Amino acid sequence: WRQRVHFSPSRKRQSPTDSSSTKKSEKYYELNRTLLRQEAAGMALVMAWVTYPPDYECRNLFEDINFHSPNYWACRIVENAVDKQLISTENPKFFPGRPATRAEVLAMFMKGAGIKNIKDISKYSFDTDTTDWEKYVITTAKYNGIISTTNPFRPHENIKRGETFVMGVNIMKIVWKSK
After folding, report:
1. CA dihedral 125, 47, 59, 134 (to 10 degrees)
2. Which residues pair with 42 in a beta bridge?
């Protein structure tokens, strides 16, 4: 049994078209704020249905996340994401407080949801500075309808929190459809 986010039934449901509820949620969730890499790792673990061990001792997989760092709480999240192969340890630093890019979040979310990359990337064109791993992630996301096929993706831009929710919903639609 895995624990998921619980929404209280006593909480009043608000219509998505109600302007006051939209404004409240935008302010509450800070949808226009840039998402940090440590937050992206945590959200990717939700996509992977990961539950955290109650007691966790940081293994210091990254130089910039340890028990004595200001963001020590992120150690459990980031190291669990490493264990689930959502992020790698190629770089000795994770940069948890740095903004996440759109490509990083897309890759973590798709890996967390178990969506495998498509092998043929010839269908779409890419900017010259797009890396190979980004090409595979973007192609897979476009093919599956996670991101738009008509608008440029801009993989190196920092992602906003609101964009992550849209990506997450699109990914979960694919996961639920396949079950």
Report:
1. 0
2. none
Average pLDDT, integer, range 43-62: 88
Q: What is the pLDDT of residues 99-138, one digit of tens each?
A: 999 999 999 999 999 999 998 888 888 877 889 999 999 9
Q: What's the CA gap between 107 and 179, in Å, rounded?
A: 21
Rg (CA), the chain: 17
User: Helix, strand or coil for residue 34?
Assistant: strand
pLDDT in tens, 154-178: 999 999 999 999 999 999 999 888 7
Find tokens 């624990």 and name the residue: 3
Which phi and psi (to 5°) does residue 172 adopt?
-65, -30
Q: Is the dihedral of CA 133, 135, 138, 141 positive or negative?
A: negative
Query: Cβ(86)–Cβ(48) under 8 Å?
Result: yes
pTM of the model: 0.80
Give me the residue label for tokens 């890019």. 101
What burial class does residue 96 get, using C-beta atoms within 10 Å of its C-beta: 0-12 exposed, 13-18 middle, 19+ buried? buried
